Amino acid sequence: MTEHTLFRGARVVDPASGRDGTIDVLIEGGTVAAVGGGTERRGATVLDCRGLVLAPGLVDLHAHLRQPGREDKETVETGSRAAAVGGYTAVAAMANTDPVADNAAVIEEVRSLAARAGLCDVFPVGAITKGLGGEEMAEVGEMAQAGVRVFSDDGRCIPSARVLRNALRYARAFDVVIAEHCEDASLSEGAQMHEGLHSSTLGLAGAPAEAEEVAVFRDLALARLTGGRLHLCHLSAAGSVELVRLAKASGLRVTAEVTPHHLAFSDEDLVTYDTNFKVNPPLRTVEDRDALRAAVADGTIDAIATDHAPHAVEEKEAEFDQSPPGTIGLETALAAVLTNLVEPGLISLSRTIEAMSATPATILGAAEHGGPIEPGRPANLVAFDPAADWLVQAPFASRSRNSAFLGKRLRGKVIHTMYRGQLVVADGKAQR
Ligand SMILES: [Zn+2]
Ligand SMILES: [Zn+2]
Questions:
Q1: Based on the domain organization, do 153 and 169 belong to the same domain?
Q2: Which of 189, 372, 377, 416 has the fewest CB within 10 Å, making it most exposed?
Q3: Is there a single domain that holds both residue 333 and residue 222?
Q4: Residue 155 CA: which ligand is closest?
């Protein structure tokens, strides 16, 4: 007998269908069977969702799952579990593993690890250049043939404009996306944080916002030159946002993402020398943070992506200048956005789901995710309590605990995550 699950009484927020209202949703096996009418089934498992929001499962364009190579920090399985706990049903796994995902064999390895874990869909990102060396093109055609949709040397910016031009030409030929980590390394070398008032006070070397803006400007110019699809990772500066706004106004097909930590924090937060605030790109000024928030609200920034970057405890406990940049983010992303953008009335719940599910699903080519929640669609869903107040603390489902949100109170908690019709998270707890 096919299993039935009924989400009863939730506010369904589904930008792909334009739906926003209280309505029941029945799941049969791995698919949505009924929305609204005809949702009663004898023997169905009924989930009382009064007070909860039901939305398409979140989709992360940018996570570092560290496998193969650094299984001490994270594995595809632990990263998938962190994703599920955070309400994600699909995650793009960055290519800067060891070995680098610059050929179809590594892509297949990550996929099979994800299938074995069975907690969410993992979309491996392919490297643009061999070994992330920045010079020789990786097996882009081979990986595109294997279904890879997004290519990135993330962790590094492509240093050569000529190589990036080539990559964007490939992107056009294979109908794939080039996702760039925008950083002019000659301006950011040795930087520990954003260059400004606080870096001088703290005595830490800084990188100016221009280190990002210069790269954004170059990349937009090359996207225009080639017609290749460009996606800009983790924007951090108001000037970058302005460049994207102008490019979009002129008709360029470019997309951009921002992280929850850049939306929540600023360089002021580094006064404690807490290495969990050491991230790349660095947290910038309050004005930058506010410009990023406004850009999510007006759509200049298309998507919110975690840049989930797990690191070992001993690495993050090292001296500030020795500690690697990065914060984990999968388990706190939704709450961080609800707390910092929805709660103050900057964006709606519908815009939240659009930026964290529908739009990233489109960019990633994840057709089974992002909604609409309609009969016949795969049952990839999240139910969350937008009012629940909680303290971020270890342990995490992630193998690492380097969270910028550690010790903070956030509003909004994931209650159920359904992946292909299975409740992988129920009542806030991972089921396997
Ligand atoms: Zn990056
Ligand atoms: Zn990254």
A1: yes
A2: 189
A3: yes
A4: 1
Ligand found nearest the CA of 95: 2
Radius of gyration of the chain (CA): 21
Q: Tell me, what DSSP letter sits at residue 277?
A: G
Q: State the catalytic residues.
A: 307
Counted domains in the chain:
2
Ligand 2 centre to CA of 62 (Å) is 6
Same domain, 100 and 190: yes
State how far the alpha carbon of 49 is from the alpha carbons of 145, 155, 227, in Å.
Answer: 42, 40, 46
Looking at the domain assignment, is residue 111 inside a domain? yes
74 and 8 within one domain: no
The torsion region of residue 244 among left (phi > 0), alpha (psi -120 to 50) and beta comes to alpha
End-to-end CA separation in angstroms for the chain:
23
Residue 34's H or E segment, with its range, is strand 31-35
How far apart are the CA of 365 and the centre of ligand 1, in A?
Answer: 21
In a domain, 369, yes or no: no
Ligand index nearest the alpha carbon of residue 308 = 2
Cα 212 to ligand 1 centre (Å): 11
Do residues 366 and 123 lie in contact, with contact meaning Cβ atoms separated by under 8 Å? yes
The whole-number mean pLDDT for each consecutive block of 10 residues of the chain, a chain of 432 residues, reads 92 98 97 93 95 99 98 98 99 98 98 98 98 97 97 98 98 97 98 98 98 98 98 98 98 98 98 97 98 98 98 95 97 98 98 98 98 98 98 98 98 98 98 94
pLDDT at 1: 64
Same domain, 90 and 170: yes
Place of tokens 């309609």: 374
**What is the span of the domain harbouring residue 394?**
4-54+376-430
Q: What is the pTM of this model?
A: 0.98
Instruction: Using the mean position of ligand 1's atoms as its centre, give its distance from the Cα of residue 325 in Å.
Output: 10
371 within domain boundaries: no
